[in-house]
Amino acid sequence: MKCPNCDSSLSSLEIIDDYGQNLKVDRCVSCESFWFNKNNLYQVPIQTGQKIDSPASRPGYSSSMRCPNDQTVLMEFKDSNLPSSIVMFRCSSCRGIFLPKGQLYAYKEYQKQRAMRGIELSRKASVGFSIAFLIFVFGLIATYSSEYFVKADPIIYQAYKPIFDHSKGVFWILAAVLFLLFMLCITVFYFRKNKIKFTIY
Ligand SMILES: [Zn+2]
Ligand SMILES: [Zn+2]
């Protein structure tokens, strides 16, 4: 296969993806651009991507590039989630992706920052939900213990019983919901942390 940018040869690099599988990516021997078949770009671990490419200033590239597989004209790939500083081209026919030198590094840096933000967000949410959960547990304890003391006087207790029952119901439901939210966030936190453990730390 020939490089869409400079027509030199593409050489195959074999890397290991996040799931331990072998993955082949193609790099131009001359301009050091990368070519990825289909979704291979997304399977390259962050750390590996930043090892095989290096940061570069905004790249120069040929104005009409064609897919090395099927000669379709490559179109610049735009996505609202993708920072405009990252330049990549896509083949509309085979969905291969071409990245000029430095863009693989930049794209993996963007993925790394996004992953870190996600981890930080789920960590903060876990702390927030656990505090809210503890507040409602405290509310439950307060309700049950005051009910216990009020029970000493049956007449007063009869008057206040609906309020106690209502409070207990509300506190139980809120505490259960917050506990579930806390568990969900902590699971997401550990899942995300483990997922990028191989690629960052
Ligand atoms: Zn090239
Ligand atoms: Zn193609």
Short summary:
The protein is of the alpha+beta class.
Structural summary, described in words:
By secondary structure, this protein is of the alpha+beta class. The protein folds into two domains: 10-101, no CATH class; 115-200. The chain has helices spanning 40-43, 46-52, 103-150, 154-200; strands at residues 10-16, 22-28, 34-36, 75-76, 89-90, 97-99. It has a six-stranded antiparallel sheet. Strand 5 (89-90) and strand 6 form a beta hairpin. It is rod-shaped, with a radius of gyration of 28 Å. The structure holds zinc ion (2 copies). One zinc ion is lined by residues 67, 69-70, 72, 91, 93-94, 96.
Give the arrangement of secondary structure elements.
Blueprint: E1 10-16, E2 22-28, E3 34-36, H1 40-43, H2 46-52, E4 75-76, E5 89-90, E6 97-99, H3 103-150, H4 154-200
Antiparallel strand pairs: 1-2, 2-3, 3-6, 4-5, 5-6
Helix pairs in contact: 2-3, 3-4
Give the low-confidence spans: none
How are strands sequenced across the largest beta sheet? 1-2-3-6-5-4
Shape, per Cα inertia axes: rod-shaped
Head-to-tail CA distance between termini: 35 Å
Reading the helices and strands in chain order gives EEEHHEEEHH
The portion of residues assigned to helices is: 40-55%
Query: Structural class of the secondary elements?
Result: alpha+beta
